[in-house]
Amino acid sequence: MERLSDTARGYAVIKAVGVEPTGIIDRCAAEGLEFWGAYPEDDYTLIFRTRLNKAQTVLGFAEKCGCELEILEKRGLPIEAKKLRHRYVLWGLPVVFLILLVFSSLFIWKIDIEGNSTVSDIEILNALEDSGVFIGSFSPNFTSDNIRSRVLIKIPELKWISVSVFGSRALIEVRERTDIPELLDEDEAIKIVAEQPGIIEQMKVLRGFPLYKKGQTAAENDTLIDGAVPSSFNKTELMHAEGSVIARTWYEICAVMPLEYNEKVYSGEVKRRFALIAFGNRINFYRNSRIFDTNCDNILRKQTLGIKGFFELPIALVTEKSRFYELETASVSEETARALLEARANKELRSKIGEDGEIISAEFTFSVIDGFAVGTLRAECRTNIAAEEKMTAEEINAALAAGEERNKDD
After folding, report:
1. Which residue, 173, 171, 169, is CA-closest to 158?
2. Which residue ranges form the domains of the chain, and what is each CATH number?
3. Tens digits of per-residue pLDDT, 99-146?
4. Considering only Cβ atoms within 10 Å of each terminal Cβ, which end of the chain, N or C, has fewer?
5. Could you read off the pLDDT of 63-108 as tens digits, one per residue?
6. What angle do CA 310, 152, 173 make, to 5 degrees?
7. How far are the Cα atoms of 49, 73, 189 from residue 11, in angstroms, in the given order?
8. pTM, whole model, 2 decimals?
9. Are 232 and 263 in contact (CB under 8 A)?
């Protein structure tokens, strides 16, 4: 294989014929002329290479070295370029492509949005399109102030927006308005109910009227702290009940998994298909658009033409790679299944009782039924079962009526 530098600069292949053809090599070395790739074709013939611009100098050594020299061929980029010098289309295509590339960079072919969390990209893109920013729009016509004012009017949830253009890429940065936190309405009728059943161990009542005491058992959805506080002298007062109720609770969590399952074993066979997307139109370089086979993983890769972070053209090469596999039956040991199920059940228990919850005791049982591993976790915990709930109109009216009746009796 020829060296890349030799091909770029060009070289000539020379044949020397004579009684002592190696004399030409000695002469080139004495004159400091570069040569390489010398090999004898027979006892009287030698083939070697030298720089293209030194070939005529080497030919001038023929008489002094007592041999005949002949240039067999000339190779390299200078020779190929000379062949193509009259093919104006080939020379013109790069120029035309460069002009199109520069002209295309004046249009927006990609829009990136950053900084939004509650407002969707689609909503922002629709507002931008109404303001003149869309795929294919002419970027020199953009006026940041006009775009900013129009988008903020259409999307009041945004408090700030900026439009930056990098070649054919538009970067839209937004900042959303921060909602003012709702103040606690102390007069709103809110009660505290039991989120789950348990035996009450501790109650901390900050506001409201407690209906349970330590040691009592509360059922799910029972009212623990009422938002209606009775009074012997005034009418019943409605308020936002606040407090915590720590109770002993019990959980039973069951987890199941098969001991045998299908596992993918890749065969090593890979097939690729290519397609071109240009200005929204897809051109497939294959006949069939269906997936090669059901037993394969398909990986899609899209490469957009352009310079990353500066501009992108609406032209992309799509590569679909399919990796074939066979499904084989695999199994997991009972010990491994037990460990997995126990870890899964403990994680579920922790999510139920929360970070502040305490596990008093826990017992995990394991069994295998019809090829399935079954794990059951039974645990006694200590956790806060209090949950806020808005009082209904019927409850409010009943509490007020009971208060009036009580005041009449007094």
Report:
1. 173
2. 4-81 (3.30.70.260), 86-181 (3.10.20.310), 190-245+387-409 (no CATH), 267-319 (no CATH)
3. 777 777 777 878 888 988 888 888 998 888 888 888 778 878 777 778
4. N
5. 788 888 888 888 887 777 776 666 666 667 777 777 777 777 777 8
6. 25
7. 7, 9, 96
8. 0.53
9. no
